[in-house]
Amino acid sequence: MPNSSWNHIYDNFDPIAFHIFSFPIHWYGMMYVLALVSALYIGKYFIKRDNLEFKEGHLDIYFIYIEIGIILGARLGFILFYDSHTSYYLTHPWQIFNPFDANGDFVGIRGMSYHGAIIGFFIGSYLFTKKYKSPFGKIMDLVAISVPLAFTFGRIGNFLNKELIGRETDVSWGIYVDGVLRHPSQLYEAFLEGILVFLVVYSYRKYQKFSGELILVYGMSYGIFRAIAEIWRAPDAQIGYICCNFITQGQVMSLGMASIGVIFWIYFYKKSRI
């Protein structure tokens, strides 16, 4: 059986990076902040490199809109799609963003859903484009190329926080989680959903046929790669497998996301040909 320091990384790893006064700052939170900020600056890089038409300062304002939408959507999505105490939070909404546990200890806000974040992102984007009269399609194209690499940091944050753990395994690079050897599935997802999705979207740019197409390519490729990554990811404990003792809710939602992307792509492609 594996017995290296890598396999036992959680035994010696402190999820708290440092403290500000009495408040702990977790690596998890730092990774998510890094993901959001890097997405902003990747977007600025492509605006400058490709000389894209964006009004001065609009990207910074847009970033605030979608950051709020993503955080709200991710948290609410987790409560609606995954949490086993949904009814409690719906009847006690002030507890949704409570960072303290029942003992009054600061534990941060845990439980975020990617698919909920997507819904919040689109709502924030819609509100921004309506107010500032910005072309929705062009903004979506920029988001599609800016998000994937930044998303990699989010998955690394999941790994450092010992969450979204992998399925049991006997591979030599497995990680012990509470005495059980598991796939480091978060890192698989960082590669598949971050780096590979970026390469797909970036490579497809030269074939783009209509405004907004890249966000559909992103949705399709992310959905497929996420469904593949879930092969090595353990199902959520409160849900388990939803079909055949193998299929997870994340796979169903991701394939649904990819399917919606295909439907919209066919519709807008035919419309662009006309």
From TrEMBL:
Keywords: Cell membrane, Lipoprotein, Membrane, Transferase, Transmembrane, Transmembrane helix
Source species: Sulfurimonas lithotrophica
Function of the protein: Catalyzes the transfer of the diacylglyceryl group from phosphatidylglycerol to the sulfhydryl group of the N-terminal cysteine of a prolipoprotein, the first step in the formation of mature lipoproteins.
Superkingdom to which the source organism belongs: Bacteria
The protein's name in its UniProt record: Phosphatidylglycerol--prolipoprotein diacylglyceryl transferase
Any one cellular-component term (Gene Ontology): plasma membrane
Gene Ontology MF terms: phosphatidylglycerol-prolipoprotein diacylglyceryl transferase activity
A single BP term in Gene Ontology: lipoprotein biosynthetic process
